[in-house]
Amino acid sequence: MDLPHENDELAGVVYRNIDQILEVRRKFEERRTAQQRFADFVTNFAGSMASVLFHAVVFGLWIAINSGAVPIIKPFDPFPFVMLAMFASVEAIFLSTFVLISQNRMSQISEKRADLDLQVNLLSEHELTRLIGVVDQIARKLGLPSAPGVDELKKDVSPERVLEEIEEAEDQKKTDT
């Protein structure tokens, strides 16, 4: 799917990336199970103003009928509206389960995006490190002095070592407090 290129200031790669992102999202949505689709539907409805209005009308009618405000209908759940409380509680149990199902799926999506971000960041770091080395070689070939700190920038960064350092710093902070 090609997006209209309304803004010619953006590089073509931006439009290609947008197309790819939308395609990945579309494929992910297609792979949802029937249960996931239903849970998403319920969660989306529950989080809408239509749900608020629906509940306001239903609960309002329930209370009006059972308070005797509607003379043509005999009250079936007198005050303190025990049946209404029970229905609301059961609905809350099911609704919280649907929300958790949807949140779990969103968490899986988030983890995949985080993995992709990490992969792209590691690749970018590797490419930039190599590029700094090439630029430094060109500068030396031209007889220019190396920029301060360039030797440190030419070193590969070990993600595992960075994570270890972060964990050690967090552990040290915990023992200090």
CA-based shape: elongated
Uncertain ranges: none
The profile of the biggest β sheet is: none
Number of helices: 6
User: In total, how many domains does the architecture comprise?
Assistant: 1
How would you sum up this structure, described in words?
By secondary structure, the protein is an all-alpha fold. The chain has one domain (32-176). Helix content is 75%, strand content 0%. The chain is built from 6 helices and no strands. The chain has helices spanning 12-30, 34-46, 49-66, 82-141, 150-153, 159-176. Helix 2 (34-46) crosses helix 4 (82-141). The protein is elongated, with a radius of gyration of 29 Å. The protein starts with 11 loop residues before the first helix and ends with a helix. 1% of the residues are buried. The model has no long low-confidence stretch (mean pLDDT 90).
